[in-house]
Amino acid sequence: MRRYGGAVLLLLTGAAVLRITVFGELYLRYVQAGLRPYLIVSGGALVLLGLVSLATTALPGRRGRPDTPHGHPGAPDDHPGHHHGPAGPRVARLLTLPALALLLFPPPALGSYSADREAAQRAAQGVGTFPALPAGDPVTLTVGAYSSRAIYDSARSLKGRTVRLTGFVTHGDDGAWYVTRLLVTCCAADATTAKVEIRGVDAPPTDTWVTVTGTWRPKGTLGSDAAWPPLLAATTVTRVRQPADPYEKP
To answer: Does the keyword Transmembrane apply (predicted)?
Structure first.
């Protein structure tokens, strides 16, 4: 059975990729929606390679071949720990564990832990004007869009407007709490943080997804560090389900 290890690893990995893309939207926890077709093709290719590997390994001429160092029967073991058999390096079989974990127990989206570890990194943009907001209140904005307008908009387009933000809850050491979203350009590995400090209502538990409605409260000088994170004077806080796509685009 050991000689089928490489094929099984390919099948597990391909099946895991297909599970989170074809049979659901779990892939949105890790990458942007536009990468879905590439993931499906990659998963299908891995499954196909795994099936081909199983078939070729099971051929009569492939049976009974012993595992020996470097694939040479009777060759001396000059490199302990680097044995290669029909299935390749034995250490590669350790990849079976993360592949199986992804297939059976997909990890959750990044949350408060990642946001708390993320330094206050903001896009290098100067103070300027932004496009006019849509008519009607409340206006729904992403956390990133609200932050940009609150910190950099010289036209003060948020003044007098009621806005609605959705994100997960994080807490500061000073007792403040925030509506937070992670901004992803390509995949979860490049995530950065956008957050808005909420005042006027009690804080829900950490990592709770909420929709907050309120009004902008000016803070600090435009474009300065003192203006970050921006403030929102909340009137209502409603708990919501985590969206299928938990990330925002920068």
So the answer is: yes
